[in-house]
Write a structure and sequence with these properties.
mainly alpha, rod-shaped, 74 residues
């Protein structure tokens, strides 16, 4: 288990967040002790999408659609 956690940390440190999430997800499902599940959960939290980015992207898309709609009315 420690090897998998170390591999997930190494992947995170080199910027391979997809691999880090994959390893942490697998580790979280199979870990038997709470400390390992907690460490895997921390990696998953650190590599998750920020909700502010999702809302900002949706707002930009809505604004873009509004601008297009208003420009086509004229």
């Amino acid at each position: 288990m420690t090897e998998s956690l170390d591999a997930a940390h190494r992947a995170f440190e080199r910027g391979d967040f997809r691999e880090s999430r994959r390893l942490a997800s697998a580790l979280k499902r199979t870990a038997t002790d709470e400390a390992t599940r907690s460490a895997a959960d921390a990696i998953l939290r650190r590599t998750s999408v920020d909700p502010a980015i999702v809302w900002l992207s949706a707002a930009c898309l809505a604004f873009f659609a509004l601008v297009i709609a208003l420009s086509l009315r004229n």
